[in-house]
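Limitations

Structures in this collection are predictions, not experimental determinations, and the ligand pose is part of the prediction. Treat each record accordingly. The example that follows, with 1,3-dihydroxyacetonephosphate as the small molecule, is included so readers can see exactly what is and is not provided: the inputs are given verbatim, and the output is the predicted complex.
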Amino acid sequence: MNIAQLQQEIIKLKKEKDVCILAHSYQAREICEIADFTGDSYKLSVDATKVENKTILLCGVRFMAETCKLLSPEKTVILSAPNAGCDMADQMGRDDLLALRQQYPDHTVVAYVNTTAALKTVCDVCVTSSSAVQIVNNIQNKDILFIPDCNLGAHVAENCPDKNIRLINGGCPIHASVTPEECAAVKARYPEALLLVHPECVPAVSAMADYVGSTSGIIQYALRSDRKEFIIGTEISIAEHLQYLCPDKTFHMLSLKLICPHMKATTLVDVYNCLNGTGGEEIILDDATIRDARRCIDEMIRLGE
Ligand code: 13P
Ligand code: SF4
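Predicted complex:
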């Protein structure tokens, strides 16, 4: 079977089995093509709440599938590649945070959505990269403990000067691997290009950018801009998707290190196997985890409005 035939089989099977497929924008193009919804992690979990299908197949990483389950506990949520974790989400356990909470009892704990459901049970509010600044500004408390990404946290601190933001030493090793020296070299090679980066990059790289924003923010910025050339400082799939979306513009990758192996763990064969019942993993969360983790997601929705 070639790729197009496999895609046709998947489309037929998902209809027969009443499955809605969600693909994060970091997934390869052939996966996005068979998805019902694509987008960033927050958008996907909200999309899942709006569909009638009883089963959601999430092509992405585990924390995203968990967030879907938290928002749609009555649905069966399947993660396409059971080994697709997230280096950032796996950095911090519940006990680590409970110890920090004891150290900083007066701080509001703000967690990036790239955290496990177990960790979310002991956080006060979640944020996504697109909503972090607005939500932190809307929190009444001045003292914030921001976990786990110190780079996104530094971006928030810069944009919320009235808050005392305490950071910890965590983050995405893939985005954080890009150095300002590399960045300067790419900018020098393409002097006409605008640099768009994700706030998971280190502050010295973000400081060199023309725009710092979430996955969807970067896509929207490039689509709306009347400029013709861009350097994309996030996972390479975004540059690839943008090149298809805007064939009259040119997209350069900031670095070939920006490949997330977890996001790339899902293949079309995995999707096919999930649909025929021989692959993937159903996300099971106990009632207490759903109840407690859901609290900080509801708070995110409330403060984000
Ligand atoms: P989004 O929240 O933009 O989907 O990004 C998730 C992520 O893992 C970025 O590295
Ligand atoms: Fe996690 Fe980084 Fe991959 Fe995003 S790019 S899923 S933060 S490891």
